[in-house]
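User: What would this chain look like folded?
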Amino acid sequence: RALRGHERQRQGHRLLRAGAQRRPDPRPGRPVLSRRARARDRILRRDEREEGDPALYSVSSLSKFKIPWIPEEGTYRVYLIYFEDGKGYKIDGQIDGTKSLLLAEKPPRNCLVLFEYEDGVSPYAVYNAEMNQIEYLDSLPKFGDASVVVYPKDTALEEEFKNQEYYVLENQYAQYVFTNINGAVCEINLPFHSEKNSQSVVLEIEFDRTIQEDYPSNDRFPQFSYTVADGKGQTKKVSPQRGGYYPLLRRNIMGTSGGDTTTRVNPHYYAFNIFEKGESPDANTYRLSHIEKNRIEFEFSEGNRRITKTYSLPEEGEAAPYCLDLEVKIDGDARNLIMATGIPEVELISGNFVPTLKYRLLQNQKSKVQQIKPPKQFVSLPHVNAEWYCNGNGFFGIILDPLNKHTPGIGVHPVSGELVPSRISIIDAQHNRYPAGKYPGYCMDTPIASKQGITKYRVFTGPFDKSILQLLDRTFADPVTGTNPDYQGAQSFHGWFAAISQPFAKFLYIILNFFHTWTHSWGFSIILLTIVLRLMLYPLNNWSMKSTAKMQKVGPKLKAIQEKYKKDPNRVRMETMNLYRKEKVNPFGGCFPMLIQLPFLFGMFDLLKSSFELRGAVFIPGWINNLTAPDVLFSWNYPIPFVGTSFHLLPFILGAIMFVQQKFMTTASLSNATTDQQKQQRSMGNIMTVVFTILFYNFPSGLNLYWISSMSLGILQQWLVNKKIQAEGK
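Assistant: Here's the prediction, encoded as structure tokens.
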């Protein structure tokens, strides 16, 4: 397919390189061929200003030029070809049926656009470098009689797509994409924080950047062209844009013409579907009855039932971020109807998949949030009369809050990850790095009241950011009872010992957030937090270090006892305890530094796994780009077991600092004599250094940063203690 100095024969047409030789054009306005040119190295030129531009010509005036047709669904590979200094150059790009062109780089001059088609490529358009725009061949006068070739398409996929229409309501917090299929929401896209969207709290992470760079066909928001109200009582069609959003719901996995297949999310799993209890939802086509900037309405009639669904952006505006109002009106038979939440996208928290399913009860005017363990089969809780339902992925989620009387009951449907694949499943798919089946989806549903006719819902669709949830609790607090919806209860702690470490995590967050208000850097705030904790624990650590030094000081005496009574172990233990009492030594004092640190270490671990505010927080750009994920110094393509595809430097820095600390802890000894116990402690210290390096390798960079800071300050304190002991010894 390379077009360098050669002509490519395709259906009677040839693409020639131009400008290889300079000679006057005796007949301006008409192309000529150089007689000196060989048969496979010809020159076609009509104007010296166009020298180097690619050109098309036909061997026969009777031949038909075939232009591929590109379906609206999917993204397809194209190549832009240009010539310079006798050499041909290619720029990769992608195009879709909306004629949106995405290029790897901007071409320096006019190009021919080739579409990858069947077993080769076919000319499709011309790129005008001066105007920076595409001129499609089928729109040019000379190609008016060209026949159109239909790109081979997936018939089943086309059948699924053909009846869908898409509509969008959007504000500074979220982009809601509605479909006429079931009048549901097929996409909820949250804009990244930027100058344009300064109120958004969602930051890019490595997954977003990887998909944007390597899988651009899955980085369009929404995925298809959509309709919006133009503010003048009319509607207009808008093309999707590339990047800039986080997808809250699982979306279609879009393939390319390179052989990848498109995996469609069944409309059954769209958000806010209504269906009959015990039955799968049919793909019913709703009629769009009204659309304006902040409101959209769908209607569906069948038999003796008419359903009207009205979505609107809340009037509270900035006081209700990431919220959507939903009103469901049912005329006629309203029995056995269910409302579903949709399926959130996957978030990996410290490398783990942690879906969170919750509901809130109100008992004696006290809020109580319960968690449902993700089931392997359908689970029904028919008697639970919940205030709200939450379907989340750890950092983001959907809270469905009925605002009027509703029927009790909760259902949880597990859905195979093969049916609703996560976007991360396309990353390094050839090595099965994130297999789709490993990340099942969960859809929650709740009955719709059958007698009142209209049911209203407040829907939260966003990040579990503490400040945002607190704002919502204040906004929607009941002034009469003084109660609030307690959306903060949607947050979860995912640590090993969450019940024990949760108080420590909350305490650490208060201090961390205080420093962040001054530094505006979560990384520096972690370091300052570590300093505060070290100062708080300084007396205990100081006592422990002195106790360790005393143990080393009595080492020769312990060794003498062991030698003297080596045949009588009981006597050794008795004399050892007598020596400890006489010298006022605590044999377990050296363990306190580690034991004191553990609750705070677990608390920090839980904090990083539970605090959305630190997700995507950058400390050192290009190295520590997300404090809730491991640091990445450099990466490669082929995955290595345990190591993965990237090198994390912080754990090795941590291991080196722990090794130095072990050396410092033994320098206070005033004798060269070493007991067996001290040898064991030294060996254990070296082993722990290796263990911690391995253990922390895939831990969040924020946790590594905390432990590195703590160990470094511990070395400083140990040095001061050793210096003081040596001075006292003199």
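The mean pLDDT is 81. If you want, I can go into more detail on any region.
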